[in-house]
Amino acid sequence: MSKLLEATGVVAGYGDGPAILNGADLSVHPGKVHCIIGPNGAGKSTLLKAIVGMLKVREGDVRYKGESLKGLRPDQILRKGICFVPQERALFPKMTVRENLRMGGYSITDDSYLNNRIGEIEEQFPILKERHSQHAGTLSGGQQQILSMARTMILKPEIVMLDEPSLGLAPKIVREVFEVMQIMAKEGITIILVEQNALMGLKYSDWGVVLDLGRSLFDGPAQEILEDPRIQELYLGGRKDKP
């Protein structure tokens, strides 16, 4: 299977502190949903931040379409087609839903094209069309997450990285968020997902990666990971409940 993005032997941490990643690897296949699971402190979010340039890669490399991303700024990586949705969602709370969507296309200079893209996104996500004039900060947590994810689609990125999209959401809303992820995948977007709810994350993914102590321990088809008794015991609560 061809690789769209590949991280090899990545060592990274925060500032001058100790390394959180100690040689992590990740292979990303085009058009697939990849779920990274592992215990708290394993380095899952750190790996996403290293890929997108928010953290310096001290050792190892990250290559996108064969080209190294090492040393590039986050805005330079974004222009290459890799978007990152952090845990805190990073919306503009005092701006409307539509204004937030417009900010997602800040680099688009053709207003007509940008307006068309916003219209297309609003058709795909009716709740955003319905709330287009509402301030983003007054939306529910689930609606804010949907807006954060939908905003990345304005630029038609090749890869979207989602850091804990279900964090703090009620179970019903979590399913809605994962359904948004499926819409993104149907649009041809390759997704890298970090998810503490490992069962749910793997259920909605094609490929799974187990990260622990800053290293990649296992990767393979998500269904195989769900059915592996060792991984069930160590990382999935010892049983394969339906989410």
Rg, Å, rounded: 18 Å
Structural class: alpha/beta
The total count of helices amounts to 10
Spatial arrangement of strands, main beta sheet: 6-7-8-3-9-10
Q: What is the global morphology?
A: globular
Work out the number of β strands: 10
Question: Which regions contain 5 or more consecutive residues with pLDDT less than 50?
Answer: none
Query: Into which percent range does the helicity of residues fall?
Result: 25-40%
Report how far the terminal alpha carbons are from each other: 29 Å
Amount of beta strand: 15-25%
Specify the biggest β-sheet: 6 strands, mixed
Mean pLDDT: 93
How are helices and strands ordered from N to C? EEEHEEHEHHHHEHEHEEHH
What is this entry, summarized?
This protein has 243 residues and is of the alpha/beta class. Helices cover 36% and strands 24% of the residues.
Sequence-ordered SSE layout with sheet pairings:
Layout: E1 5-13, E2 19-28, E3 33-37, H1 44-51, E4 59-64, E5 67-68, H2 74-79, E6 82-85, H3 97-104, H4 111-124, H5 126-130, H6 141-152, E7 159-163, H7 171-186, E8 190-194, H8 198-203, E9 207-212, E10 215-221, H9 222-227, H10 229-235
Parallel strand pairs: 3-8, 3-9, 6-7, 7-8
Antiparallel strand pairs: 1-2, 1-4, 4-5, 9-10
Helix pairs in contact: 3-6, 6-7
